[in-house]
Amino acid sequence: MMKTVTEFLPEPPSGIYQFILRTLDCLPCQIELRARQRYLMTCTVVVVPLDDDGLPADAPFKCVTRDISTTGICLVHTRIVRARRLAVEFSNADGSTLNTIVEVTRCQSVGPFYRIGGVFVSRSISANVTESA
């Protein structure tokens, strides 16, 4: 089986999960009023910054989700993101994926990381496809 490009991307630093959990109570989004309830969800996702035409604008990277709602998501990454839109891919253990486009509403420095907030603008689900020999 061939490996996809995303399998060669470096994993986020191991301390990022501990950082997210340690800073939950002090992050500003805890006190913001939201239209939809956010749920803590920490998992690694693959992100591709997009240009205004929806084409890749920069190299893909892996980062970690902090929380999610029905309308948006918060990601934590090691560097600033300047793209206005991101393609975000969630992978399941069975090989299925959920691909979303996120419009970035903020990218703020939080300690040694960056918190990227955004709203979902589209999504697609890909079922697990088994290879035939």
Describe this structure as you would to a colleague:
This protein is mainly β. It is 6% helix and 44% strand. The chain is built from 1 helix and 7 strands, in the order αβββββββ. It has one helix at residues 15-22, and strands at 39-40, 44-50, 61-68, 72-77, 85-91, 97-110, 113-126. A 6-stranded antiparallel beta barrel has the order 2-3-4-7-6-5. The protein starts with 14 loop residues before the first helix and ends in a 7-residue tail after the last strand. Mean pLDDT is 83; it is low at 129-133.
Per DSSP, the total helix count is 1
Mean pLDDT: 83
The radius of gyration computed from the alpha-carbon positions, rounded to a whole number of angstroms, is: 15 Å
Tell me roughly what share of residues is in helical segments.
Answer: under 10%
* Main sheet properties: 6 strands, antiparallel, barrel
* Order of the strands making up the biggest sheet: 2-3-4-7-6-5
N- and C-termini, Cα separation: 10 Å
Poorly predicted sequence stretches spanning 5 or more consecutive residues:
129-133
What is the string of SSEs from the N terminus onward?
HEEEEEEE
Structural class: mainly beta
Residues in β-strands, percent: 35-45%
Instruction: Name the shape in a single word.
Output: globular
Number of strands: 7
Task: List the defining traits of the structure above.
133 residues, mainly beta, globular, disordered C terminus
Structure described in brief:
With 133 residues, the protein is mainly β. It contains 1 helix and 7 strands. It has one helix spanning 15-22; strands spanning 39-40, 44-50, 61-68, 72-77, 85-91, 97-110, 113-126.
